[in-house]
Amino acid sequence: MLSEKEKIDLITQISIDLSEVKDLDLLLDRILSNARRFFSANAGSIYLKEGEQLRFGNTQNETLQKRLRRDKKLLFSTYTIPVNNNSISGFVAKNLVPVNLADVYDLNNTVPYTFDSHFDKLAHYKTKSMLTVPMTNQSGHLLGVMQLINAKDDQGKIIPFSLTDEPFIAHFATTAALAVERAQLTRNMILRMISMAELRDPMETGAHVNRVGAYSVEIYEEWAKGKGLPLPEIERKKDFLRMAAMLHDVGKVAISDLILRKQDRLTDQEFEAMKSHTFLGARLFRDIQTDFEEVAIHVVLNHHEKWDGTGYPGHVDMFTGSPLPGYKILSGRATGKKGEEIPLFGRIVAVADVYDALSSRRSYKEPWDEARIIEEMHALSGKSFDPEVVEAFFSCFDDLKALARRYPD
Fold first, then answer.
1. Domain 201-406, CATH
2. What residues are annotated to the active site?
């Protein structure tokens, strides 16, 4: 067990760590990992407040994770809980007070809430001790609820959460809430930019970009682990990639409605105009001051390039859209980027974007069935897609299907 000084030092380091994460989903995962480590918890969940509901945002469970293959992640579905006194999390959210329970199956008859054992039965897991705390900002407004499950002693035995830890977790929850609030502002700003694109192109929805962003991160992580990249580098780049991938088609705000909303096949001239959304979008990030802006340019400019060199916009000056010197071909077009000339994150988002298009309903098509999608993605490997990225895609295919359920249309 950690000493009080070690706990203070650790919580200071955790606060610094959380301040560096920008993306909301990755932040929730980091918060929960750090909280479980700090309080020696076997499992935990975070719920975010949406209106009068708590939305299940992230979960971790060491016991269930160990039952999986080492390279597989614990999958979960999102759901909501009312902010009322009926559940433990709802009670904490409604009353803004922590609840520390030694045994959730042995509740005092005077409390208004009950423990729902449905998950335990479904997962063959036994919840015992539980510490649930509100996550409030500096104004005292509720942002969410953090729930830690099954504290462990040094021998791995399940014990109650210590009463002396309650001030630490209250401080931790406040620090986490401030990070969540900042990440929510960033996410909302990105989604507002997407909403502008959606006004022009009905297919460019919040659900679509959330899926593409989530898929891209999973594919990159699988690819990076296969390459043996260090975990801190993977985590840092996932943060930038998640946000950049969501903005992959932001340049469509500059494309005419007559083209974006056209139901018939585009003419050659119209298709050339459509292609310009790549470099027009990249211009938004041209004054590079952060790693995120550099990643965003790579994604926005290159997500329609193809591994065999037949994609677009090719080797162009993103300020003018004109071919770079030495890369002009017939009809004034630029030579397409080929193979590893295409930046990695552009290659990854290309796979994520096409997979979402195939698996989603569109005005002109129904979702493809899984067998047809698998066949098509294999067929595009080495043509449209980097074969190594496709391999990573199939390695995390079950994770991608679970993510799709988290962001339905």
1. 1.10.3210.10
2. 252
> Which whole-number Å values give the CA distances from 306 to 231, 273, 313, 368, 381, in the listed order?
29, 19, 10, 22, 10
The closest of 312, 290, 309, 292 to 301, measured between CA atoms, is 312
Whether 179 and 227 have beta carbons less than 8 Å apart is answered as no
254-304 pLDDT tens trace:
888 888 877 788 898 999 899 999 999 999 998 888 888 999 999 999 999
Strands (E), 67-204: 80-82, 99-101, 130-136, 142-152, 158-159
48-72 per-position pLDDT tens digit: 999 999 998 889 999 988 888 666 7
CATH number of 4-182: 3.30.450.40
